[in-house]
Amino acid sequence: MIPLKDTIPSRTTPYINIFLILINFALFFYELSLGRLGLTRFIYTYGLVPKRFFYLSDQDFPLLFRYLPFFTSTFLHGGWFHILGNMLFLWIFGDNVEDEMGHFKYLGFYLLCGAGAGFVHLYLNPFSPLPAVGASGAISGVMGAYFLLFPTSRIITLLPIFFFFTLVEIPAFFFLGIWFLFQLLSGTFSLIAREVTGGVAWWAHVGGFILGMGLRVVFVRRRRYRRRYYDYW
């Protein structure tokens, strides 16, 4: 299932959401300019490496770099599919959450969800020497807030049926619920396998989503009325 847009328009310009998307792309293009050796050094410096957090035997990294990657890692990506997929989800779900929270509260919410998702990944993979990068933990938090704020919204989704694709409208509650269940099951299987290999940080997604639902109570003080809106295209 590939989401294309939701049916709730923004009431205000989502400045912070646009800024987050632009800075993610800017840093990704910077990564592309580094070359293979420079990129590896950059990712291992600013990516979240669980083993480095727990075992500070590597004195080349000052104490600052024990905590800074919880934020910097959320702005780095491992490839075109990685960043395009993440930014698509952020574009679809982030604007409405920013509407409800306000611009600067939304920025704080996003950063906290990203850092919290990083902590979940770190504590469930304490021996991993691999750097975790990507905005998906923070975006999962945005999706968790959207799940509670706009359960009756419709997500216009590109759905493959055999060899064809069709557009369908899926209730946000169902779309995000299925997405979360898939992350949870995949994360459970990853714990069973327990192989130190690269891949998807499933538990960062799970942790970010749950944290986003919880922080929604703090960052959205009162629920404002929003009419249902359908945009057919």
Approximate shape: globular
**Within the CATH hierarchy, at the fold level, what is the topology?**
Rhomboid-like fold
Query: What is the straight-line distance between the termini?
Result: 18 Å
| Count of the separate structural domains | 1
Mean pLDDT: 87
How much is the radius of gyration in Å?
Answer: 18 Å
CATH architecture: Up-down Bundle
Specify the number of helices: 10
User: Unreliable stretches, pLDDT < 50, 5 or more residues?
Assistant: 227-233
Range of strand content:
5-15%
Structural class: mainly alpha
Strand order of the largest sheet: 1-2-3
User: How many DSSP-defined strands?
Assistant: 3
**Order of secondary-structure elements:** EHHHHHHHHEEHH
Going by CATH, the homologous superfamily would be Rhomboid-like
Strand count, sense and closure of the main sheet? 3 strands, antiparallel
Helical amount:
55-70%
CATH class: Mainly Alpha
